[in-house]
Amino acid sequence: MEIIGQTLDDAVGEAFDKSAKLLGLPYPGGPLIDQYASFGNPKAFLFPKPKVGPLDFSFSGLKTAVLYFIEKNSKDNPEFIKENLNDICASLQFTIVDYLMDKIKNAVKQTKIKTVAIGGGVSANSGIRKALQKTESDLGWKVHIPKFEYCTDNAAMIAIVGELKYQQKLFASNDVVAKARMKY
To answer: Which residues, at least 6 apart from 5, have a Cβ–Cβ distance to it below 8 Å?
Structure first.
């Protein structure tokens, strides 16, 4: 296996969840954005796609753009989010999915590998699933999308590993330091 691209900051699921928080939605907000998006216009509002290398991801700029968008429009109309929630969610989801598909298409073009798999909690997102299914038929890819019951959030996966290690009394020493970004 070879890493050809990675997130430079937040993962896609965090982008959904943190944007949802800015909209006043409860955690986890990603599924709620997906739900509201199904009733909205994906082209109602334009959000910027982050500009990084052809295979890497970044969502911090998008979250900042969502923050400024909400602040600006809510200042003029305190009911803006409530009145436009479906369209905001649809536009945000459209931008994120389009951005992801750009990156996946770049990876397929670079590697010539046409088998794509997704995982984690965000793989339950209907926009991502539909875009991959469409690309599978349009471009002849083989796409692997897990059943919903296997679209488990990474936090849940880490928690169960912690529980299993606790039950087996597998504890780290106190001098172990956590590292969010491992060097490869």
So the answer is: 53, 54, 55, 56, 57, 103, 106, 107
